[in-house]
Fold this protein.
Amino acid sequence: MFFVQVFSKPEETQIPMLRDYVIEMTGIRQRQHNERLSQSLRIFVSDILLYASHDGKTGAKGTKSVVDNELQKLEKALEPIVGKLSADMDATFGSVRQKMEEGASNAASEASNTCARWSAPVVSGDLHPNTYLATTRKKGVHGEFDFNEDLAEPMYRSMTTVWDWAFSGMLWQALDTLKTDLMTELSKITSSLGSQLSQMGVDSLRCAEVATQLLTSANHKLLEMVSKRKDLVTRKQRIISRIVTPNIQNSLFVTYYMCASESGPGSFEQCKTHMSKGIERERHSMFNKATENIMQELLALQQEVIAHVKDVCDVLLQDIRAAYEPLYAHSIQIRAAFLNCISKIAKRLEEIGFESHDYPVSKIAKRLEEIGFESHDYPNADEGLALHGNNPDNSADMILE
């Protein structure tokens, strides 16, 4: 036996290059994740500082009603924005369906010829009779041969022309537009609230500070939302695009079973007959069924994306309410209830060496001390916190465990 040396050194196989590329991409993903986590934590700490450091002297009566009124307007303004995303996804997936149906029609038309090619004489065909028999007995898959994949190929041809356009183009554009439109509405409400509250006697600088931090936090959350939805869509569309072949295999299950039952002389001819009749019987329904299954999966993906976007919108509304709450008259008692928790969290963050670019955590406790904000000065603080819809049992010790 003679061995021929194909490669003289590992680099010629390109395996080291592939390994280095995988390591590099893994490192990039990890750094991106850590940067997002760090940014989220910085904004969280900044939100807490802004909320708790207000001295309670610049609040005004009637602030809550103004904020509530603007939030109602914002909630109504967000509905058509989310509705537009849903409509854009409907239109995009509608184009996908059109191409899928074209592919299903082409696949049904070519199925009989594809089946005949498998059993053609070896001179012009692809398979030896024994290989053909082995493939049919293994549900259409044997070695490098896959009958199901061959039957699905016309559908994949049609899908290729629209799939990348849908998932790397139109959906990304729709999500980016959503983020821009949401930020526009948030900018409008902070501007309106700043103007109204200043006229009521609330410190304009304080209003501007709240608006700046609120928009920074909202922008980060929306960027995270878009990034994670893109990751979700990318992952799921890969899975969805591969369900055609298994669907065809399931549709031909009875046909493959009949072929597997054949043995002895004449089994090849019997299997050819079973395959020809089975594919003729199923060729329309199995491709249409594959199309419907794909569309059902895409609809489920759309519903998941829209549900998450609505959840983020609810969070943004809650954030706005919380950001302006310190400007209410007599709001200091509520905030006093979680002062100890904030102090412990800030201390723990300082111990692990984390510092926010905007608000170093070491300044939180100091700032609270400067304004004379001590929780023991407000004996009814726990009651106020309970009325505010929070659970006093959620201590900092639990958070830091």
About this structure: Residues 84 and 352 are 44 Å apart (CA to CA). The beta strands are 141-142, 145-146.
